[in-house]
Design a protein that fits this description.
This protein is α+β, with helices and mostly antiparallel strands. It contains three helices and four strands, in the order ααβββαβ. It folds into two domains: 32 residues; 57 residues, 3-Layer(aba) Sandwich (Glutaredoxin), CATH 3.40.30.10.
């Protein structure tokens, strides 16, 4: 599912700027996104530019998505000291 969304975004945004590859266009579009966090505050993904960012797309109705959350929380605890950031985006 995530690969399909990324592929579509890459195709769509590469048409807007043909000088960029589909992957570069998708990354640019994603870093321009502003999402609302759990506290209701707007968060721009660009605030993590230049860092290693793990983006997890998930949904409450998706059992495998819910099952992987504890592993991601554990990885977050181990890897943030190395500059790795984790962002979960719920559908």
């Amino acid at each position: 599912m995530v690969a399909a969304i990324a592929g579509f975004a890459g195709y769509y945004f590469s048409r807007a700027n043909p000088a960029l590859s589909p992957a570069e266009s998708a990354v640019q579009a994603l870093t321009r996104a502003t999402l609302t966090d759990l506290d209701g505050k707007a968060q721009m993904l660009s605030q993590w530019r230049g860092k290693v960012l793990v983006v997890n797309f998930w949904a409450t109705w998706c059992l495998p998505c819910r099952e992987e959350i504890p592993a991601l929380v554990k990885m977050h605890g181990r890897m943030t000291s190395n500059g790795v950031e984790f962002v979960g985006i719920a559908f």
